[in-house]
Amino acid sequence: MIERITNNQLYHLVMANIRELMREPGVLFWGIVFPILMSLGLGIAFTKKKDIITTVAVIGRNHLVKSPDDSASIIRNFLQINKAGTQISKNGGYSKTLTIRNDKMGNTMFIFQAMDWKHAMVLLKRGNLNLILDEKNGAVQYHFDPNNPDAQLAYLKLTKLFSTTGRIATASDTEIAPLTVSGTRYIDFLVPGLIAMGVMMSSMWGISYAIIERRSKKLLRRMVATPMKHSNFLIALITVRVLMNFVEAGLLFLFAFLAFDITIQGNVPALLTLFIAGNFAFAGISIFISSNTAKTEIGNGLINAFSMPMMVLSGIFFSYHNFPVWSIPVIQQFPLTLMADGMRSIFIEGAGFSEASVPIIVLSSIGLVFFVAGMKIFRWH
Amino acid sequence: MDDKLVIEVKNVFKSFKAVQAVRGIDLRIPAGQFAAILGPNGAGKTTLVEMIEGIQEPDRGEIFIMGKTWKGDETYLRNIIGLSLQETHFIDKLSVWETLRLFASFFGIGKERCEEVLYIIALEEKRKAWVGNLSGGQRQRLALGISLLNKPKILLLDEPTTGLDPNARREIWTILRKLKEQLHTSLILTTHYMEEAEQLCDYIVIMDHGKILKEGTLTMLLGDMNDVPVQPVRTRKITLDDLFISLTGRHLDD
Ligand SMILES: Nc1ncnc2c1ncn2[C@@H]1O[C@H](COP(=O)(O)OP(=O)(O)OP(=O)(O)O)[C@@H](O)[C@H]1O
Ligand SMILES: [Mg+2]
To answer: How far is Cα A314 from Cα A307, in angstroms, rounded to an integer?
Structure first.
């Protein structure tokens, strides 16, 4: 019996693919370490927003420090009342720092830096600051790009601050009721998308590239010059890739669970079915892409042509709802979008089979269509 | 047809866009014969052999192997033929042993035969070495070994010794001679080496520009040469080289 298995061609084809994979050190890095690093980096950058430091340019030193002949200044007065700390840098730069404490939204530290217009414009262009303060006719003037959300936020905070009389206490705004619902953080949005993207990239490179390379090295031709069943060759390649994708996705999830406490709120069997449907879709596309060419350069190009637009448009890192309205229904039909959105709905919205059935069916159909089309034009020699 | 014939090629043509690679070839190989196809680069040797191997399809003409055709009996033929292509890269990150086992599994063949083949090609020491780390000669021996896994009745080798040093080449000849004695294998090999054709093969086919220029046993071919009054004063023995030059107007390795 064991002899029967170990002489079986499918077994040997699967083993050959596994060995080739395990003996390639890059696989471990790009398949496993890299996605984890990416989720770690992006997760920390966007989730653990703590103290916000906002630098504000103030035109004219007299708004920060009083000299004998100066008239009244709203900004100076405000900073004085609130006992803002003073810093003088080596090159004579003068600034005052004020920290606004807030239990619920995190602390905000404002650095008011005295400078002239020219210098302020340079820093604005570099992105070091996005708000410039000035006073005219006894009123504070705010100069900023109204389309910049950070500048808007700083503007709103500062107008509120300047309108308070007396000292600002630590804010513990009773009207803010923090939502502690899980699944609303950026990392919750990111991880399901990263898993879907990992499946796409790993299938495209793992399957397409392997086929094209074997064809270009004439190994495919050599293999089909034996009684090997053609289907076994493809089954082995796809099986090993799907197994690998399971391992990669599992490790990424485990990491996100340990580091960010991510949980699956929906139906796990539905998630697994969707995951397999996604694998099938990308395996089909990969077979199609690699069905006819023997040139690895063409393979590179085709893989990029398929995967790049989806990476950008499918809302892996940021929601695609910022794209023009007409494009959204199109974007939503991309296989990567279908998989990422479906995974997200199960991960964070608690969806089950009823919600996931559409993406599962569409992804499987995409896989089937591309697979059949690929087999029609597949070049074994 | 003659049932002693293992390979019969009838008026076969094959073109690639503008290039006519094979232009009307007939070939008959009886059982147990070793035939060499000799010709310069681009003569059409690989194209001809790959059509016999069922890898390429002729535009015109017929090919019978053991009286069967590729259309009708592919599975049967794949099981009785052993072959090596002109250039194959096996999987670099598999060991010699794993590669043999993989190909053996395609034929449903087990370990024992892999051991035998490993012994025949004298790569036992390299059993665990990755294919990517083998020398050129070792890689060619492995390719030969893979072609022998199924104890083929018919062996088709495309330039099995190109690039090998004279010793390594002779080792391969020795392996092939043993096959002839022990298994009565029929062989077609392509080569650029006169010596290989002379020493190893019973029958020599000289090809150029997609056509057979001359074929026969060595003595027949050289005998014909003696009738041609090319060199009035003959100071040395006529060789295949002379024949080749008189046929094609150039040296083989030009
Ligand atoms: N797939 C192909 N596409 C286009 N032309 C081809 C193809 N295969 C072979 N040819 C052309 O057909 C001719 C014969 O090629 P072939 O490979 O059969 O020669 P060969 O005798 O094996 O040469 P060599 O000794 O260099 O291996 C050459 O001119 C070659 O360029
Ligand atoms: Mg050739």
So the answer is: 10
